[in-house]
Amino acid sequence: MPPFFSGPSVPAILALADGTIFKGYSIGAVGHTTGEVVFNTAMTGYQEILTDPSYSRQIVTLTYPHIGNYGVNTTDVEASKVHAAGLIIRDLPLLASNFRSTQSLGDYLKAENVVAIAGIDTRKLTRILREKGAQAGAILTAAQGAEPSTAQALELARSFPGLAGMDLAKVVSVKAPYEFTETEWKLGEGFGKQTNPQYHVVAFDYGVKRNILRMLAERGCKVTVLPAQSTAADALALNPDGIFLANGPGDPEPCDYAIAASRELIEKGIPTFGICLGHQIMALASGAKTMKMKFGHHGANHPVQDLDSKKVLITSQNHGFAVDPTTLPANCRVTHVSLFDGSLQGFERTDKPAFCFQGHPEASPGPTDVAYLFDRFIGLMQAAEKK
Ligand SMILES: NC(=O)CC[C@H](N)C(=O)O
To answer: Where is the active site (predicted)?
Structure first.
């Protein structure tokens, strides 16, 4: 057993498609899982990460070595279940210590049927992913009293086709429209509250994170959430003041239904705001192209510059695809750029009240650095109302 490991000792294997094998210990469900292995550099927020629907079909490794320290609770979730395909960590502490904790991370992973592995040299794994790019992988736990098979783990890893071309937004989306009715919630030290709704926002659910809906509700929006494949006519029938295009998993390019619906609504001049997958969908709807990144951006300390105010924002990020800025048409103005690699982080339409952001303004690493984008959306709806 590696010296840094302090959890239970059921053997498990992590295999990467390039043939790399890591041996560790199961800390979640028994069985196997496959997906694209990505690394996330956030020091906290493992529960938000695991439940973020954007991580569907991705196995996440966290670079911070101690994961599980503060247990899990029922309020920090971004969706009703874990969406990540698996979890890879270095050390699961024996003790979860936090007054909000209701369960240990290990018990939560088992209850959610998530295959997860600890005792892994996550620095080495992250270096491989940085050098070679995010790649397919598998976690395989041992059968009762046996060792997991390296050959089987490798075969499983290589069976995952990769995320390029995978349309997952419609898979994780709700199946029927609903109105967001959470009216009071814990926000850090205090409580957030739904204020009197003044605007009706129709949100396309490509895998929406709950905190986005809360931040809209908190700013006086009634939010109706529509399934990903809803049409522009479905949204228009609800007489919206604004359209929200959500985050979500997979490749944005095959989401033709989302691209068509958002194009129609943006062209109609309805104020529109997109986050992450929603940003990519807005770009595709505007005529730009998206591309797969080498290892993407996954973390909570990514500096992004607002080109108008020149301010540097500390942002939360989770994307493996990006908009190719060289393909943006003339009616799209770049507003935000990543200071890590210069990639596009936000743009606005100069001819329509529509803008979008690649990172996650609803997550709070800054902690409120990027929240002003929600206010900007409210401002667009206010301006449209006065017309
Ligand atoms: N968080 C997201 O919305 C992710 C968008 C898209 N699935 C990507 O990986 O780029």
So the answer is: 276, 360, 362
For the stretch 322-377, pLDDT in tens is 999 999 999 999 999 999 999 999 999 999 999 999 999 999 888 899 999 999 99
Based on the fold, state whether residues 267 and 137 are members of the same structural domain.
no
3 state DSSP class of 381: helix
Kindly state whether residues 241 and 104 are assigned to the same domain: no
Whole-model pTM: value is: 0.95
Task: Please give the annotated binding residues for L-glutamine, written as ranges.
Answer: 54, 248, 250, 277, 280, 318, 320-321
CA of 357 to the centre of ligand 1 (A): 11
Q: CA 48: distance to chain centroid?
A: 9
Whole-complex ipTM: 0.98
Is 5 inside a domain boundary?
A: no
Residue 53 and residue 107 in one domain: yes
Neighbouring-strand partners of residue 135: 37
- Residues lining ligand 1, CB < 6 A? 54, 247-250, 276-277, 318-321
Which CATH number covers residue 40? 3.50.30.20
Atom 3 (ligand 1) nearest CA: 247
Residue 122 belongs to a domain:
yes
Q: From its phi and psi, is residue 267 left (phi > 0), alpha (psi between -120 and 50) or beta?
A: alpha
DSSP track, 133-152: -SEEEEEEEPPTTSPPPHHH
Domain boundaries, position 154: 10-159
Q: Select from 304, 235, 317 the least CA-distant residue to 277.
A: 317
Domain check: are 177 and 96 in the same one?
Answer: no
List the catalytic residues: 276, 360, 362
